[in-house]
Structure formats: C-alpha cells, structure tokens
Amino acid sequence: MPSNTVVYQVPGAITDTSIPPLPRDALLTGANSGIRFLFDLANAYSWTPGAPVQGKAVKDLSEISADGLVNTAGTLAAAGNGIDFTTSAGRACLSAPTGVLSDLWPDQEYILCGYWKLPVLGNFPGVGGGQNTTLLTAESGASDHYGNSAEIVMAAWDMGAAGRVRLTRPTAVSTSGVESITLDLTPHAGFLTQIAVWRTAANWNCRLKSSAGTTLGIPNTVNVKSTGDFSSKGLHFGMSGSFGVQVNNSARTGLRLYRGFAENTKRSGRAAITVLDEDYGRTVGRAVYG
User: Fold this and answer.
1) 4 within a domain of the structure (yes/no)
2) Does residue 215 lie within any of the structural domains?
3) Around Cβ 83, how many Cβ atoms within 10 Å?
4) What is the pTM of this model?
5) How many CA atoms lie less than 13 Å away from 262 in the CB half-sphere?
6) Into how many domains does the chain fold?
7) CA 13 to CA 169: how far, in whole Å?
8) Phi first, then psi: what are they for 64, rounded to 5°?
9) CATH code assigned at 164
C-alpha cells in the first residue's frame, strides 16, 4: 500500500443506500452500465485458477451478463495469468454469453477489446500460414461465417500478408459487403498488446497498443450500420471456428489471452480512445501478466 494512503475504519454496518458500491474493476467506474461483459483471468472473481478446460466458467466483472465459458476442442494451458494457445488445435476460444451482442445490436456503437501476448517474430506465420486464426468474432463454425451468418467484427490473422491482422466489419450477411482495416502486428511481436476495435455514429476504427507504441488504423468513413442481425450471437475471443478451424499453426505459438471487454458506448457516453488509453495504463501497471 502506498505510504500516502489513509485508511478509515467505520464501526458497524453501512446502511446508506446512496453510497455507490465499489466496482470490481476500475474500468467500470463511470461506465453507466455500458460495460456489458468484462473478464480478467488474473482476477479471482472472474477466473478460478487452473486449467482452461472445455466449459470452464468465466465470470463477468460488471455483473451484468451471465457467465462466459471456455470452448476448446483440444488442449489449452494456463500460463502467466492467462490462457496459452500454443498446444491448441481446432476450436479454442473464450466465449461471452449471447446477451452481450444483443445489447450492442440496436445502435452498434461499441468498443471491443482484448489483451493478448503475441507470438515472437520468429513464430509469425508467412502468407497463408495463419489461416483461420481469429482473435475476435461472433462466428462459431465452419459454415458460420460472415458470408452466411451475421457478424459484428472479425479480427483475424491476415492470410494475404505476413504479420498483419485484418479487422473486417460486414455491413450485411455477405462476403462482398464488408469494410476492412489491416494493422501491422510486427512491432508488437512478443509483447502484451491491446487489440481493440470501436464504432461510433461517425466512423469505425481499430488499434494495437503495447510497450512498442500504438498502431492506429485509418478510420473507415463509409461506416453504415450492419443489416445482418448479430443480436443472437456470442462473442468469441480466440479461434472460434469461423470459416472452418484448421490444425495448429505458428500463429498460436506463444499466443496468450489475458483480459477483454465489450462496451456499449451509446449507454456509457464515453470516447473509445480515452477508455482504451486509461484501461491500458491500469492494466499494464498491474504487472500481473506473463
């Protein structure tokens, strides 16, 4: 505890209901119930330490949504207060409950964010080598992709360029009616990295942020709301099965997931960059992820 901290002990029970409860995470302060799902694998309330086996619960720190869960067809490992995907094959992700995207669907103004440790540069796959390695998607099966089913945003390793992540936002259920932004992962290789995407009424954009700096996308100003109704979908952090799940590849080697959230900014009234910068500072400052 810092030396300048003063602690007051109040005798007896506090019965004043006007005193707001202390949130479980600082991200929730001032969010006006906008944080619809927040998990942190270094937080004992959100995650029980141990192996990330199929069906293991992940509690929502905002206490708004039901539990999320681990979805895996193979073996995942617990490492560094996170989930390590190195030994995984096939489907391997952390899935938020369906109610999260139903809240985001009407206005489609949101922040989606995950904290990952990226593979080291030597394990970055070449062109085509990271096939179907998704980091964020609402899709969950080989035929469940944005050409056949509604999607909010898919963040996936870009098969057409080495060391890139492509964020694709369909404006309809179609493989042609899509908007996409590609970001360079290479400066962030091996680092704890915030990967985030957001949409407002004016534009949508995305970024990577690590100790190596910030890689910001070029805002997409077409930005029409999607007509593909994703309200009944789950939100998956990891390889969910979109476009089919392939066997393990080097895009998973050393890849770890630590924390993530979905925020309805129409509810919260908050600006994405401010939220992301403040949360990044607090998250890195905790120094709990390895």
Assistant:
1) no
2) yes
3) 28
4) 0.91
5) 29
6) 1
7) 50
8) -100, -45
9) 2.60.120.200
- 289, 260 contact by CB (below 8 A): no
- DSSP 3-state assignment of 221? coil
Q: Is residue 6 part of a domain?
A: no
Q: List phi, psi (to 5°) of 204.
A: -135, 150
At 22, the amino acid letter reads: L
* Exposure class string for 34-64: b at 16+ Cβ within 10 A, else e: bbbbbbbbbbeebbeeeebeeebebbbbbeb
Interatomic CA distance for residues 199 and 89, integer angstroms = 32
CA 263 vs CA 38, 61, 66, 130: distances in Å? 9, 13, 15, 28
Structural contact between residues 170 and 178, judged by C-beta atoms closer than 8 angstroms: yes
Q: Measured between alpha carbons, how far is 152 from 138 in angstroms, rounded to an integer? A: 6
How far apart CA 65 and CA 46 sit, in angstroms, is: 12
State the residue range of the domain holding 93: 26-286
Nearest to 206 by CA among 121, 123, 117, 135: 135
The tens digit of pLDDT for each residue in 165-223 reads 999 999 998 877 789 999 999 999 999 999 999 999 999 999 999 999 999 999 877 88
Is residue 1, in this structure, part of any structural domain at all? no
- pLDDT, one tens digit per residue, over 227-279 is 999 999 999 999 887 776 665 567 889 999 999 999 999 999 999 999 999 99
